[in-house]
C-alpha cells in the first residue's frame, strides 16, 4: 500500500509500505476517509533535523504515515480481539492514542495522558490514516453510527472532537456568550457546536473568507482583529461585561492574550491551539478577575463517541466543514493549499 509521509521542511512523499497484518489484540482498518488537521502543519513544517515537534513528541526515525483523523471499516481482526471490540465490516473511528492501557488515565479513556509508557500517537510517531490500511489496537476503536458519513467520522476523530471537548470542559450553555478566536477547522467546528448548545457566538479571525463561513455556521457576531481592537469589540458587544467564555484555537500569542483580556470577571478562558506561548500580567488579567484558565487537549474515547451522538441528535451537518476532498496522490497539492491557512478543511477519500 502507499502512504503519505512528511519528510520535513514542507516536503512529503507517497511511499510504499507492506499491507499490515493484525497481531494479538489488533485490527486492520480499511480507510474510507482520513482528515487533514491543523496540527498536521506542525509536522509538515518541521525542519528535517528538529528533535521534537510542537506536541513535544520525538519524531519516529523511520518513515511514518501521517494522518490522525482516521475513519473506515474493520477489514481484519487479530487473535484475542473480543466480538464486543470489533467485527469485520464494522464502521469505526479511531481514538488515535495508545498508552499502557492499564493506568487510571488509560482505563478512563484518556490514553494520551498515560504517564507510564511513551504514548503512541497514530499519524505522528506511529503510522496513521493517510493510507489504504491502518493497524491499531482494538481498544482504540470508536463505533461510527450509520447516520454519520465517513468524512464526518474523520472530523470527529480530532478537529471537531477537539472543539466539542473544549466546549464541554467549559460547560457551555445557552446562558453564555462565547468568543472564539480563530475560525480554522477547529474554531469553525466550535462555532457550529456552541450554537447547537444554545450559546451566543462571537467569531474572530483575520481572514474575511473564514469570518464569512463562521456567519454561515451560526456566529451571531464576527470581529476582524486585524482591523479592530478585539478586546474593545467584545466589550462593546457585551454591554461592557466581556464574554462569559473565550476559546483560543489559533495558537497566536496576541490572540491568546486578547482572549484572556476579553473574558469577564469570574469567566473561563480555554486554550486549544498547539504550540506557541503567551505573556500575561497575572494580577490585572487573572487574579483580580477571578479568571479560570482551562487547557483542553483533544478528548477521551468516551467523549469522542458522545460528540458523534451529539451531532446525530442535534442534526449537525459536520460534512459542511470540508471545502476540499482529495485522493492520496494529490497529497502534495493538498498540503500546499492547507499550509496557506486561508481555506477550510480537507479530507482524503480512500
Automatic annotation (TrEMBL):
One of its GO terms (molecular function) is oxidoreductase activity, acting on the CH-OH group of donors, NAD or NADP as acceptor. SUPFAM superfamilies: GroES-like (SSF50129), NAD(P)-binding Rossmann-fold domains (SSF51735). Gene3D superfamilies: Medium-chain alcohol dehydrogenases, catalytic domain, NAD(P)-binding Rossmann-like Domain. InterPro entries: ADH-like_C (IPR013149), ADH-like_N (IPR013154), ADH_Zn_CS (IPR002328), ER (IPR020843), GroES-like_sf (IPR011032), NAD(P)-bd_dom_sf (IPR036291), Zn_alcohol_dh (IPR050129). Its cofactor is Zn(2+). The keyword Transit peptide does not apply. Residues 8-348 form the Enoyl reductase (ER) domain. Belongs to the zinc-containing alcohol dehydrogenase family. This is Iditol 2-dehydrogenase. The keyword Electron transport does not apply. Keywords: Metal-binding, Oxidoreductase, Zinc. It comes from the Bacteria.
Amino acid at each position: 500500500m502507499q502512504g503519505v509521509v512528511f519528510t520535513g521542511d514542507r516536503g512529503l512523499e507517497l511511499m510504499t509500505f507492506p499491507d499490515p497484518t493484525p497481531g494479538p489484540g489488533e485490527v486492520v482498518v480499511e480507510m474510507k476517509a482520513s482528515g487533514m488537521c491543523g496540527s498536521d502543519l506542525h509536522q509538515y513544517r518541521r525542519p528535517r533535523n528538529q528533535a521534537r515537534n510542537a506536541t513535544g513528541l520525538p519524531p519516529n526515525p523511520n518513515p511514518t504515515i501521517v494522518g490522525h483523523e482516521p475513519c473506515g471499516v474493520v477489514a481484519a481482526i487479530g487473535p484475542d480481539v473480543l466480538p464486543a471490540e470489533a467485527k469485520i465490516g464494522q464502521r469505526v473511528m479511531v481514538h488515535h492514542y495508545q498508552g499502557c492501557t492499564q493506568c487510571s488515565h488509560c482505563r478512563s479513556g484518556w490514553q494520551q495522558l498515560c504517564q507510564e509508557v511513551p504514548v503512541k500517537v497514530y499519524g505522528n510517531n506511529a503510522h496513521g490514516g493517510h493510507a489504504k490500511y491502518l493497524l491499531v489496537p482494538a481498544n482504540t476503536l470508536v463505533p461510527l453510527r450509520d447516520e454519520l458519513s465517513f468524512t464526518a467520522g474523520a472530523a470527529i476523530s480530532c478537529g471537531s472532537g477537539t472543539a466539542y471537548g473544549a466546549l464541554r470542559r467549559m460547560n457551555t450553555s445557552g446562558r453564555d456568550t462565547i468568543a472564539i478566536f480563530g475560525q480554522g477547522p477547529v474554531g469553525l467546528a466550535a462555532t457550529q457546536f456552541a450554537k447547537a448548545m444554545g450559546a451566543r457566538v462571537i467569531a474572530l479571525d483575520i481572514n474575511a473568507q473564514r469570518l464569512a463561513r463562521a456567519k454561515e455556521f451560526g456566529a451571531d457576531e464576527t470581529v476582524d482583529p486585524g482591523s479592530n481592537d478585539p478586546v474593545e469589540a467584545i466589550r462593546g458587544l457585551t454591554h461592557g461585561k466581556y464574554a462569559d467564555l473565550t476559546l483560543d484555537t489559533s495558537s497566536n500569542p496576541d490572540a491568546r492574550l486578547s482572549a484572556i483580556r476579553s473574558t469577564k470577571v469570574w469567566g473561563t478562558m480555554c486554550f486549544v491551539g498547539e504550540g506557541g506561548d503567551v505573556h500575561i500580567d497575572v494580577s490585572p488579567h487573572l487574579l483580580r478577575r477571578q479568571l479560570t484558565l482551562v487547557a483542553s487537549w483533544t478528548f477521551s474515547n468516551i467523549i469522542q463517541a458522545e460528540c458523534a451522538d451529539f451531532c446525530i441528535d442535534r442534526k449537525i451537518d459536520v460534512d459542511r466543514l470540508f471545502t476540499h476532498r482529495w485522493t492520496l496522490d494529490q497529497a502534495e497539492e493538498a498540503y500546499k493549499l492547507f499550509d496557506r491557512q486561508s481555506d477550510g478543511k480537507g479530507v482524503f477519500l480512500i
